[in-house]
Amino acid sequence: MTTLKGKGVYGAIALGRITVFKRKEASVKRVRIDDINAEKARLEAAKEKAVSQLQKIYDKALREIGEANAQIFEIHMMMMEDEDYNDSISGIIETQSVNAEYAVAVTADNFAEMFASMDDAYMQARSADVRDISNRIISCLSEADGENEVSDEKVIICADDLAPSETVQLDKDRVLAFVTAFGSSNSHTAILARNMNIPAVIGVGEELLKTVKNGELAAVDGYTGEIFIDPDENTKTRLENKRTEDEDKKRLLQELKGKENVTLDGKKIDIFANIGSTDNIGAVLANDAGGIGLFRSEFLYLESSDYPTEEQQFAAYKKVLESMAGKKVIIRTLDIGADKQADYFDLPEEENPALGYRAIRICLTRPEIFKTQLRALYRASAYGDLGIMFPMITSVPELERIIELCREVREQLTAEGIEISDRVELGIMIETPAAAIISDKLAPMADFFSVGTNDLTQYTLACDRQNAAVEQFVDPHHEAILRLIEMSAKNAHEHGAWIGICGELAADTSLTETFLRMGIDELSVSPSFVLKVRDAVRQCDLSK
């Protein structure tokens, strides 16, 4: 038996045969051409075919993993239209009189190297994206079908790495697990794996493909990140028992539907769901969430080629409020910037976008965009129980200006005879250390706080969440982070506000009792984690 170790990104157990993932890659040769216009026409036809393929992948991802996670394929389609990228390809065809395949391959190498050399981790990740779209165009030029070789049987797939498009194209019914030599837990592929519920281990290292062979029996432990090649009987028995226990636990969780989120000593807590679009409402209801604690409104902007109108936004917000039938819905205002980009915003390039022009900073400096969203939100408030939440707050003047703009919008709508609710709660995200430290000043102005632990961790520990190189230094249980959350909870309650957590830590059941003892009133998690967190709450006894 050989044991390899990587990082588990989705906790589950798989036992089965290995298939080494092989791509059908077209060989690219430099060929001199005589008709430049004809070659450019070939290129355009291939790009159209590539976009059509990406649209099908996007549609599949949308059905299986939701809007927020499918957006990477919209980004790929937009990258194909990038002016600099296309000018480079055309320029090589024209100046060197060469075939389109060669021009695309050279451009891919140049752009990928440029992205990989940047200091910003988000831009480094674009290196893999530009190679992915370039390989797709080359496949279309060479009339390859773009499909990858995967066994018809249920298998454990081992690969050097998997592009997001390759991950989504995998038939979940034929994949037991996947294991990659490279990649980080924050990569698009790892995120997609978690949302597709596929046991996955990444970052095993180069020895993976030197060790594994097609048809070998293997076991994957997505909890520990271990891969056992040709496991012995004791290991197989241990993992089979672990898998059975895991499946039994998941079945027991289903029995918690309809039960209260109440501790053994009688403390109740709200468990809500985080979603990225109206397409995820079904998952919220299916998992028995008490409401929506984070509705990411930026999907409306990211999926559009221009600023979404007031009517477009109103229709989306109204749909989610009506669908939740009176349950609380908290919609976060526009959070564009950093790793979420929309070309029409024409945002400047920044050396460190996570610390730059993003979220509420855009809204307060472009009030016409902000007020359009606020009008749509307040109009939708007549159709349900709405809370509006503002991201990236760092100061009292910011919140004062937000409250003033909300007042102006309410007065305008009332003057126009448009019905709005008078029960709309206004809250802020605690995702900067500044907001937590001055939470005693912010709490009197807000109805609620919601802690965004992903960014709070990033800013508190000075570790870029997109940078795999510093991942080993990220401790989400760091005492500094927990102290900031506890401080915010104390200040919220002293001033009559409630507080929730909507970041990744909300689903960390090892911290559930800690959060309840701090006085956290609400936990908002991905829909699939609602019942798991309910189970953890019901096992807590705060009287001890």
Radius of gyration based on Cα positions: 25 Å
User: Poorly predicted ranges (pLDDT <50, ≥5 residues)?
Assistant: none
Give the biggest sheet.
8 strands, mixed
Q: Please report the total strand number as a whole number.
A: 18
Distance between the termini: 46 Å
Please tell me the overall pLDDT.
87
Percent strand: 15-25%
Spatial ordering of strands, largest sheet: 1-10-9-3-6-7-8-2
Number of helices: 21
Output the structural class: alpha/beta
What is the global morphology?
globular
- Helix content percent band: 40-55%
Short description:
This protein has 544 residues and is α/β, with parallel strands linked by helices. 46% of the residues lie in helices and 15% in strands.
Key terms:
21 helices; globular; single chain; 15% strand; eight-stranded parallel beta barrel; 544 residues; eight-stranded mixed β-sheet; alpha/beta
Describe what you observe in this structure.
The two termini are 46 Å apart. The protein is built from 21 helices and 18 strands. The longest helix is centred in the first third of the chain and has 30 residues, at 36-65. It is an alpha/beta fold and 544 residues long. It has an 8-stranded mixed beta sheet with strand order 1-10-9-3-6-7-8-2. It has an 8-stranded parallel beta barrel with strand order 11-12-13-14-15-16-17-18. Strands 4-5 form a two-stranded antiparallel sheet. Helix 2 (67-80) packs across helix 5 (121-141) and helix 4 runs antiparallel to helix 5. The model has no long low-confidence stretch (mean pLDDT 87). The chain is 46% helix and 15% strand. The protein has helices at 36-65, 67-80, 83-96, 100-116, 121-141, 164-169, 188-196, 207-211, 233-254, 281-286, 299-302, 310-323, 360-365, 367-380, 396-415, 433-437, 439-442, 453-461, 479-494, 512-518, 530-538; strands at 2-5, 7-10, 13-20, 22-23, 148-149, 155-159, 175-180, 200-202, 217-221, 226-229, 270-275, 292-296, 328-332, 385-390, 425-430, 448-451, 498-501, 522-525.
